[in-house]
Amino acid sequence: MHSDHNTAWSSCLSKIRNDVGDQGFETWFKPIRPLRLDNKVLTIQVPSQFFYEYLEEHYVQLLRNVIDIQLGKDFQLEYSVVVDTGDGSNQPYTINLPNNPSRNTSKGYNSKPEPRREMGSFELFGYDIKLNPSYSFDNFIEGDCNRLARSAGYAVAQRPGVTSFNPLMLYGGVGLGKTHLVQAIGNEIVNGAEKKVVLYVSSEKFANQFFDAIKNNNIQEFSNFYLKVDVLIIDDVQFFEGKEKTQEIFFHIFNHLHQNGSQIIMTSDRPPKDLDGLMERLVSRFKWGLTADLQQPDYETRIAIINRKMQADGIDIPDNVIEYLAYSVDTNIRELEGVIISLIANASLVKKEIDLELAKQTLKSIVHDIDSEVGIDYIQKTVSEFFKVSIDQLKDKTRKKEIVMARQLAMYFSKEYTNLSLKSIGYHFGGRDHSTVIHAVQTVNDLYDTDNNFKKSVDELRKKLKLKSI
Ligand code: ADP
Ligand code: MG
């Protein structure tokens, strides 16, 4: 028989380790301290309520079985939860683990930790997360393409967590204003009368933080951080596709926040039903509140956006130029902004007033590649066939080595053989940044010089693209 809590718990641990694997063990079981063993009740201390919930949700059956086997069926487990109140006076309290865990549906607590009162700016594990104050409702132009999303967003900003728009899920293609709109909601709340803790984070940053938390063994700090917010804005959740562990933790945080009446706002580049690599139970939660899409801007909205941008820069341009731009650039607002910036830059370079002629020249050099024999579509098709990857893979976020290489090569050839700007090329590869394209070109150049096999592939591809080697 195990007479003391330490040996009792360590006998349980040895069983648990076999079942949960190293990582699960390090993360969820190593931080547990056995406290006492009295009257067949083993009390263990867990660092927080979140910890307890996570154990309960994921490991309750395992714990029960292990206790049954190692200690006996009449033994009980009790958690003692140390709540981090942030002021050093950590108060433990106790939750019982019932004998029949399947009946344990009601949780006898609802003590939301005191949030930190800072204004939309935080740091976790060296990652800065803050709202960008330049995104506001004021400078978000309303049009048919975004009316529903905007008004739902505005309603949420006035009464976060109170409307039925919880979660609020906004989706739409790249450059259509998702980030702008959700940041505007965040800024509106932060500037409002009620002091709310608002956190904006990209899904990528969230995933990286989580990864670091696992690596450095401070899942605890990670989850506490996210559980303290009144409003969680999480951008581009399509990034969670295929990342099961990250989805698990997000699911948990989502449930906890939602249950406590915190507002959750998310964006995605496609409707929830098309988020293939996400767990069904997560996707179904996304549909609990309101889902609204942002569409490509219509002509009137494009006119209004150009006018607004020019106004903001104090620049006057003729109506026919505005119309020409609005007519020609219909893909998305980011692209439209890019054209406007290039036009202003060109005008100052050649020291000319902006007129139709200059607008046409600018546009020709950055948007269309009509003159070029080899277009970006053709390059993507050729490269994808050559490496046997799909065109979608060239555009998505997969980081598999072969796909990254194919993607970088396709970017490299696009830069070489089309008139597209770096920005535009990035856009055609799933909305990547221009710096990603620069990086791709450099990588290809480096490898071409150092790796013979790689050099062969490049030369062969060049032939396939019906272009002579330089
Ligand atoms: P997404 O997150 O959907 O890719 P962003 O929110 O980053 O798009 O928007 C791209 C650019 O277009 C940003 O500079 C943003 O300010 C601008 N923009 C998007 N929608 C609007 C709008 N309705 N009014 C004014 N500017 C907009
Ligand atoms: Mg965005």
Describe the model:
The chain is of the alpha/beta class and 470 residues long. The chain has 18 helices and eleven strands. The strands form three sheets. It has a five-stranded parallel beta sheet, sandwiched between helices. A four-stranded mixed beta sheet has the order 1-2-3-4. α2 links the parallel β2 and β3. α10 packs parallel to α12. The longest helix is centred in the N-terminal third of the chain and has 25 residues. The protein is globular, with a radius of gyration of 27 Å. About 6% of the residues have low confidence. The site of magnesium ion (MG) has 3 residues, from α4.
- Percent helix range: 40-55%
Give a short account of the largest sheet. Answer: 5 strands, parallel
How much of the sequence is in beta strands?
5-15%
End-to-end Cα distance, whole Å, is: 80 Å
If strands are numbered along the chain, what order do they take across the biggest sheet?
Answer: 8-9-10-7-11
Count of DSSP H/I helices: 18
Radius of gyration over C-alpha positions, nearest whole angstrom:
27 Å
What is the secondary structure topology, with strand pairs?
Layout: H1 5-29, E1 33-38, E2 41-46, H2 49-70, E3 76-83, E4 91-97, E5 121-124, E6 127-130, H3 147-158, E7 168-171, H4 178-190, E8 198-202, H5 203-215, H6 219-227, E9 231-235, H7 244-259, E10 263-268, H8 280-286, E11 290-293, H9 299-312, H10 319-328, H11 333-349, H12 356-366, H13 376-387, H14 391-395, H15 401-417, H16 422-428, H17 434-450, H18 452-464
Parallel strand pairs: 2-3, 7-10, 7-11, 8-9, 9-10
Antiparallel strand pairs: 1-2, 3-4, 5-6
This protein binds adenosine-5'-diphosphate and magnesium ion.
